[in-house]
Amino acid sequence: MQLLLKMLTRTPLALLYPIGWIAYFVAFRVLRWRCEYTERDIANALPERSPAERAEILRQSYLNAADTMMEAFWGFGASAAALKERVVIENPEVIRRCQEAGQSVVLLTAHYANWEWLLLAAGVHFGIPIDVVYQQQRVSAIDTFLHEARSRFGSSLIPREEFVYTLMARAGQLRTYALIADQTPRPEHPKFWTRFLHQDTAFFTGAGKIARFLDAPVVYVAMRRVGRGRYAVHLDVLAGPPYAHGEDEMIVERYAAALEREIRASPADWLWLQKKWKYPKPEAQVAAMTAAADAGSR
Asked: Which residue has the higher pLDDT, 295 or 210?
């Protein structure tokens, strides 16, 4: 399997795109893979869009996901110069100022545009080690391949289960930590609820806690698609030290607001397939059960 994956990293992007289109056609047109709940999530998140607009967002999101997958393979084998040409950082001085001030940095982004290229391009542009929290893959061959590919330009991948220990061990070092923070916490994990795209939505609380522990600024990394296989990145400072008590939640709130602005600007560039709304907010769940019980007693 690793041999096949490595062969894909040596395939020109112009040849990978047709493979991606076939994957899109099979997943979206033939199997209708995850279409039912993805269509529902888009309707709930963007009720102001017409049915025709939402249908096009659904279709384009599958096509963008296929392109992103093929671009990721290409990026895993691309040179630093090639990646630097295709991913432009508009205001790199934000990170450089932190470096000059001797500050660690917490970078927050999402499954938006091409997050795989984002990690590689950051290593190329800034030339600094970036510690990335990631979820290990169940298939060891795939996990090994992804670990090696994502670490090509100095990034260090830290399994989610080991992150707290690693953070404590490196507390005195100047580091840059990157988190893709739009995943949904497990029901039993700590979480912060906020209104996001018209819905009660759970987010991880870790970003704020990490920033306070490191006394580090938090930077939102906004990536937009400017053409097929070409992206621009803008860095927005969400918060900075000194931090007061309770600012953990403020950081998450600002992150959610920044991500919502991106999604509204170009909805099809978000990975709707990841199923963000997996369970209701507890109060809403109780209210729904009460309403159902009342209806049954009539």
From this structure: 210
